Amino acid sequence: MSEGLSHELLALFLPEGLLEYFEIVSYEKDNSGKKIYNQQLTLLLQEKDTIPEEYKGYQYKSCGFMEARCVDDYPIRNMLVKLKV
Length: 85
Known about the structure:
Blueprint lengths: L2 H9 L6 H4 E10 L7 E9 L22 E7 L2 E6 L1
Parallel strand pairs: 2-4
Antiparallel strand pairs: 1-2, 3-4
């Protein structure tokens, strides 16, 4: 399966509108070490350099970036899902 197709399939499980501001850089499938959900899917998302339409008229200043954060999402097919943003 090509990487583009893999990302398109993963996008079907993400919250609506998320890919307007972020792109999927990579993903990892690991053992979670948990009893019920024994697998874990981690999606690495990178912020796009776009400004939302409602803020285009405002002056803005880039203040750098923070360390990536992990957000727990809903399980998919018996796997815990983490979004690393």
